[in-house]
Write a structure and sequence with these properties.
The complex is a heterodimer of chains A (56) and B (439). By secondary structure, chain A is mainly alpha-helical. Chain A contains four helices and no strands. Chain A starts with a helix and ends with a helix. The mean pLDDT of chain A is 83. By secondary structure, chain B is an alpha/beta fold. Classes of the chains: A mainly alpha (56), B alpha/beta (439).
C-alpha cells in the first residue's frame, strides 16, 4: 500500500501502526466488511497525507 | 516549490488530488486568520457584501436600461419606479417599487466580449494572465482586514464556482467556501457511510503518523497552509456553526421561500442573508443563463423573475433585521447584450455598454449614475469599468484601495487594480470609487 500510494516503503513504526489500524473489531458487521474497513482506514490515511498531496 | 513546467502536462497529480479532495473529502475550502493582518477600517462602514453575479451576460435593455419605442428597444416596455425620471424594464416590477433604495449604473463598460475573460476582469479587477491568478474580492477582504470568524469562512460562493479565481495567489487559506446548491448546504461535510467518530479519529491519527516525517522535513508555506485549513475544516465539521448553512433552520422558511422565490438564486439570497447575519464578510451568489443569442423574449422572464423576487425580499429582510446599512448588495454581469436584435430574435455579446446595480451599505438609493446613448449602444457619460465598480464596493466596506500586497514573485497588486503614479513615484489604485453614489 505504501509503495502504490506514496511510492516508498513504510518505516517500522509506520508498519506497526498500519497493522493495528487494519484491525477493526466490530461485531455488527461481517469479518470481510471489517477487514475492508480496516484497509480503507489505511488507504484513507495515506491519501490524506501532505506527502501524497505535495510530492509531484 | 512551484515547478510550473510540470503543470503543463494536462491534468497534474496536484490538480487531480485537489479536485478529488474537494468532491470526495470536502476539504479544499477554508481560509484562516492571521491576527497581525487585522487592519483598522477606513472609509465606508459596511461590513458585508452580497454580490450577485449574472453569468452569461445580462441584457441591460431588459433590466435597468430599457429603451421602449426605439428600434433597438424590442418588445420590452418600461415601468415607473416612483422616482422622477427613472424607469426600469417591465420585468423588474418588485425592484421598481424599491428604487428609492437602489442605485443603478447605466454606463458599465468592458474591454472584452469573452465570457471567461470578462468574468475574471469583473471578479479580480485585473486582466487574465497566464503567469498569475489574481485574488477575488472576498479573498481581498480577508487579506486586508483579517478573518472575521473563528470557524465560519470569510467568504462564500453560492452556485457554480468553476473557473472562479477564488483566493488567487493568496493561497488556499483565503479560499472562498463553495456551496453548489443552497438547499444542500456544504457538500460532503458529514462522515462517509459506515464511518463513525471513533473510526474517523483513528484514521486521523494514522494519517498524522504517516505524515509526521514529511511535515517536519518540508516546512514550506504551502504545506503549512494546507495543514492549517485542513484543521480549520475539521473544526467546522464539528462546529455548531454548520447550522448557518442549513436553510431549513431559517425562521419562517416556507413563507420566506414564497417571497424570495423557490429558485436557486432565491434560496441563494436567503442563505447569503443568513450567512452575513452570522458574520460572514463576502458572499457571491451566482445566477447564470443570460446568454440569450436567440428567442430572448421567450426566455427573459425565466431569468428576471427570480432576481426581481430574490433581491426585493433580500432588501426587505436586511432592512427589517437592521443589516441593510451594513451590507452592500451588488448586482453585476460580465458584459451586456447588443442593442441590435439579431435574426434569431436574440441579442449578442456587447461589452461597450451595460448596467449594474448597488444598494445598501451607505450607497444612496434612488439614483442613476452614468448614461447610455439613445440606442443603448455606447456610454454617453461617466464610464465605469469593473475595477471602478469593485473600488466602489471596497470603499463602501472600508477596504484600503491603496494597500499594496506583493505576490510570491514580488510583484505589487491592489484590490481594484494598480497603476504607477509618476508624481509620487508610487503604486496607487487604478479603480476609482464612484463617490456620487455615497450620501
Amino acid at each position: 500500500m505504501f509503495l502504490s500510494i506514496l511510492g516508498r516503503y513504510p518505516s517500522s513504526e509506520e508498519k506497526s501502526k498500519a497493522q493495528s489500524g487494519m484491525r477493526v473489531r466490530d461485531k455488527s458487521i461481517s469479518d470481510e466488511a471489517a477487514e475492508a474497513k480496516g484497509i480503507g482506514s489505511v488507504v484513507w490515511a495515506l491519501v490524506n497525507t501532505r506527502e501524497f498531496l505535495f510530492i509531484q | 516549490m512551484n515547478v510550473n513546467y510540470k503543470k503543463w502536462d494536462g491534468l497534474s497529480r496536484r490538480s487531480f488530488v485537489k479536485n478529488t479532495a474537494r468532491t470526495a473529502l470536502g476539504v479544499s475550502i477554508l481560509p484562516y486568520a492571521n491576527p497581525n493582518e487585522v487592519l483598522a477600517a477606513s472609509g465606508g462602514k459596511a461590513e458585508h457584501c452580497i454580490f450577485f453575479y449574472m453569468g452569461g451576460a445580462m441584457s441591460h435593455m431588459e433590466t435597468f436600461d430599457p429603451k421602449p419605442g426605439t428600434e433597438t428597444g424590442g418588445k420590452t416596455s418600461a415601468i415607473d419606479t416612483g422616482i422622477a425620471g427613472i424607469k426600469f424594464a417591465e420585468y423588474l416590477p418588485n425592484l421598481a417599487k424599491r428604487a428609492k433604495d437602489i442605485a443603478v449604473i447605466r454606463s458599465m463598460t468592458q474591454k472584452t466580449g469573452d465570457h471567461q475573460d470578462a468574468r475574471y476582469w469583473l471578479t479580480t479587477s485585473y486582466q487574465p494572465r497566464s503567469t498569475i491568478v489574481h485574488p477575488s474580492m472576498g479573498a481581498w477582504g480577508q487579506r486586508l482586514q483579517g478573518k472575521r470568524l473563528e470557524t465560519l469562512p470569510d467568504s462564500v460562493i453560492i452556485g457554480n464556482s468553476n473557473n472562479h479565481p477564488g483566493p488567487g495567489f493568496f493561497g488556499p487559506t483565503y479560499a472562498p467556501l463553495p456551496v453548489a446548491d443552497p438547499d444542500v448546504g456544504i457538500d460532503n461535510i458529514g462522515f462517509a457511510r459506515g464511518v463513525n467518530e471513533d473510526l474517523f479519529e483513528k484514521r486521523l491519527e494514522l494519517m498524522n503518523t504517516f505524515d509526521a516525517g514529511f511535515r517536519s522535513k518540508f516546512q514550506h508555506d504551502e504545506v503549512k497552509s494546507y495543514t492549517q485549513y485542513y484543521d480549520e475544516t475539521l473544526k467546522l465539521m464539528q462546529s455548531e456553526d454548520l447550522e448557518q448553512f442549513d436553510l431549513s433552520k431559517e425562521p419562517d422558511y416556507q413563507k420566506k421561500t414564497q417571497r424570495y422565490g423557490n429558485t436557486r438564486v432565491g434560496k441563494g439570497a436567503m442563505l447569503a442573508k443568513r450567512l452575513i447575519k452570522a458574520g460572514v464578510r463576502f458572499v457571491e451568489v451566482g445566477h447564470g443563463g443570460w446568454d440569450m443569442h436567440d428567442e430572448l423574449w421567450d426566455r427573459i422572464e425565466g431569468k428576471t423573475n427570480p432576481i426581481d423576487m430574490a433581491l426585493s425580499a433580500l432588501i426587505d429582510d436586511l432592512k427589517a433585521e437592521g443589516l441593510f446599512d451594513k451590507t452592500v448588495i451588488a448586482l453585476a454581469t460580465e458584459f451586456g447584450r447588443t442593442p441590435v436584435i439579431n435574426v434569431n430574435g436574440g441579442r449578442d455579446h456587447h461589452p461597450r455598454c451595460f448596467s449594474a446595480m448597488l444598494a445598501g451599505g451607505g450607497i444612496q438609493g434612488g439614483q442613476v449614475y452614468g448614461a447610455s446613448d439613445e440606442a443603448g449602444n455606447g456610454v454617453k457619460e461617466n464610464p465605469v469599468e469593473p475595477k471602478d465598480f469593485n473600488a466602489t464596493i471596497a470603499h463602501a466596506m472600508g477596504l484600503d484601495l491603496n494597500k499594496v500586497v506583493y505576490s510570491p514573485t514580488g510583484r505589487p497588486f491592489l484590490i481594484a487594480g494598480h497603476t504607477h503614479d509618476k508624481a509620487t513615484d508610487s503604486i496607487v489604485t487604478e479603480g476609482k470609487p464612484i463617490m456620487p453614489l455615497f450620501s
